[in-house]
Amino acid sequence: MKNIYFVRHGETDYNLNEIVQGSTDVELNETGIKQAYKAKEKLKDIHFDKIYSSPLKRAKKTAEVISEDRNVKVNVDKRLTEICFGINEGNKFGTYDYKGFWNAKNPHLYPEAEDVRDFIKRVSNFLDSLKEDSNDEENILLVAHGGVAKAIATYFKGIPEDGQIDQIVKLSNCDVLKFNLD
What we know:
alpha/beta
């Protein structure tokens, strides 16, 4: 059985101040680093055959902390990058149509933003490649972002009839989810 463990990155100052970060490359803050070490402790008894991370600093640092003392390389994959919110990045939450943005059937498209449908395809492509490239008995750790968790959940659960994936899964920083890839 192929198990995927998903960890959302630790806290950043953008998270703390409720600012949209998306594909903006923001570092973990002190709390975020502590959260990464707590996630490491939570996962200490699980052997990981592979570890993948988003290339964004906040996810990569979280993955590096969790992988300390393990003989497993952190593989960076662009397909795990958070969705780009375009002109909304750097703004406070609540200043744009959040539900409309995350509607996978009829999204509100913003200038310079990635279409949520393309985002879901990108993450699904990554998961499909994991299915093909992994052994039958593997534990795989993915460290990425809240939006990536939504896309992964749609991969396993499908898109809700109304298209709204904004509430399909909600994670706090360094929360862990487990999925079966078989």
